Amino acid sequence: MHYIIENIARIRERMKQASLSAGRNPEDVRLLLATKTVSAQNIKIALEAGEYIIGENKAQEIKSKYDDLMDVPHQKHFIGHLQTNKIKELLRYDVTCIQSVDRYDLADKLQSRLKLEQKHMDVFIQVNTSNEESKFGVAPERAIELTKQVSEFANIHIKGLMTIGLFSAEEKKVRVCFKLLKDLQQQIAALNLPGVDMNELSMGMSQDLEFAIDEGSTMVRVGTAIFGKRLYPDSYYWNEEK
Ligand SMILES: *Cc1c(COP(=O)(O)O)cnc(C)c1O
Prior knowledge:
The chain has 242 residues and is of the alpha/beta class.
């Protein structure tokens, strides 16, 4: 069996066990394949094995894989830092959800473009729960305000929140990030903002998906544990304006 298919089976089992020990229904946690740097050929192996959601970090990569993935059913999410001049590309290549909306300016430009093209977009608000300067996301204390502002845009539909937890071997510190996101979700849901769904919590990756599921994740984003180590360090994707 292909290593990617074996790895997916392992991840699915981890997700199931984590859901069960948290007293949750395993079907309530979805898997997003984090496919940055992964070839279209390898993504295809995963999709053909029954996976459906992929997440990319760069518009350029979405574009370069677009033709090769066209004939395999899947849904594309954007999970990277988004510059406003790349919005057009995301729309052109059929991204259905942008998980990394973290500032008003970005949402404003997205709304203008969506209106022009008479399209709609699902988004998550990305929150910087670890307070690391190197990571994108709105500061937790500003997340509610940003959600309110973005909810005013007619063509943008907020579906939940996303975060990258702290990279740490200390379980407690990692969990603090996920608890914070859950807490914000509940606070925002209680506001009953028109047009805002707070059903999704995108959190948990290769290293920490068990904690995230235990804290309420509805979508884990897994790359390394399925496709293997990446050539570039994550800082290449997270810290720099590229
Ligand atoms: C790369 C990436 C992931 C997956 O990380 P792994 O540690 O490889 O599982 C999840 N979320 C985002 C935003 C990413 O860029």
